[in-house]
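// run 5 | inverse folding | seed 20
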């Protein structure tokens, strides 16, 4: 029996008992590259769909971060300001780079998390992994996010430039081409330090919190994952994902603010990214670094809850429910 087959039926996020039963004995269960390609596709779709749907909220959040003196009436007040001044279409600014960027990032993040978790367990053994599962969750999610951010950074730089400077370009292709022409490759990666500082802790908090909250919730509920019904499983995924989103948003908020500021304009001659970050942090202070947190909590909490639910459903549809499971729930 192969390594993957040893863990058949152990799935993340939760699937119902009936779903797991179906997944335990498929005619040809996906393994190897095929399995992780399915994980990646599920992650790509769930991230692209959810981030794309949240574009209007992301536009408002970014404007609040970049121009707090102008957009100072909270999330709903800022929505109205943007619509009155620029029309409803302005709320979809950056939709193209958001969908494409998070399609790439989501595939590498979710697929990478499943893969790195498997690699770690293979190297340290299942018993050790279960005894140190928080460390496994954190390490696997950090490694996956680092790889994913290499793909995300150019698209995120383009998105922020389009949102912060509405006249910069008419869309993804134009904005991408202009940055490449005027600033070169480094223009896309000016925010790579901040995006790592933001996304790596964010992803670590997101996956580790999701795993631990699920485990504790199931203990309180008195059921194992395999005993949950098809109605109960999505509820646990949504609830745990919401809490994970709140934790991830709070931890990564300062870096998210700095990323928006760094990508708003290009660096001055001779100015380093580290120098810009230090200067901006000093100017903003603690209060300024957490500007827009309420809006981001709404966005990230909702987004994360939906991501884990959609991810679980797509994995089920693709027959890729046999991920490595180290939770004791």
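// decoded
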């Amino acid at each position: 029996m192969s390594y993957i087959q040893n863990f058949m039926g152990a799935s993340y996020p939760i699937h119902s008992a009936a779903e797991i039963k179906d997944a335990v004995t498929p005619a040809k269960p996906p393994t190897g590259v095929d399995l992780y390609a399915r994980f990646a596709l599920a992650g790509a779709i769930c991230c692209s769909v959810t981030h794309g749907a949240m574009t209007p909220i992301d536009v408002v959040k970014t404007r609040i971060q970049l121009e707090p003196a102008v957009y100072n009436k909270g999330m709903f007040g800022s929505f109205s300001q943007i619509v009155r001044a620029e029309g409803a279409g302005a709320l979809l600014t950056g939709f193209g780079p958001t969908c494409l960027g998070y399609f790439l990032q989501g595939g590498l993040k979710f697929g990478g998390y499943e893969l790195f978790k498997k690699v770690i367990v293979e190297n340290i053994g299942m018993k050790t992994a279960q005894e140190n599962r928080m460390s496994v969750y954190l390490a696997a999610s950090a490694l996956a996010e680092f790889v994913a951010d290499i793909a995300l950074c150019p698209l995120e730089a383009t998105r922020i430039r389009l949102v912060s400077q509405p006249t910069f370009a008419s869309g993804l292709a134009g904005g991408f081409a202009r940055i490449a022409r005027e600033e070169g490759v480094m223009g896309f990666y000016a925010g790579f330090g901040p995006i790592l500082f933001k996304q790596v802790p964010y992803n670590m908090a997101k996956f580790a919190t999701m795993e631990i909250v699920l485990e504790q919730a199931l203990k309180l509920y008195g059921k194992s994952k395999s005993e949950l019904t098809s109605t109960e499983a999505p509820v646990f995924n949504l609830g745990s994902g919401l809490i994970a989103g709140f934790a991830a948003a709070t931890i990564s908020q300062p870096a998210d603010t700095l990323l928006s500021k760094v990508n708003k304009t290009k660096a001055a001659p001779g100015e380093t990214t580290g120098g810009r970050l230090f200067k901006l942090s000093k100017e903003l202070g603690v209060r300024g670094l957490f500007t827009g947190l309420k809006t981001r909590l709404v966005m990230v909490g909702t987004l994360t809850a939906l991501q884990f639910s959609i991810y679980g459903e797509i994995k089920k549809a693709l027959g890729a429910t046999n991920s490595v499971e180290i939770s004791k729930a």
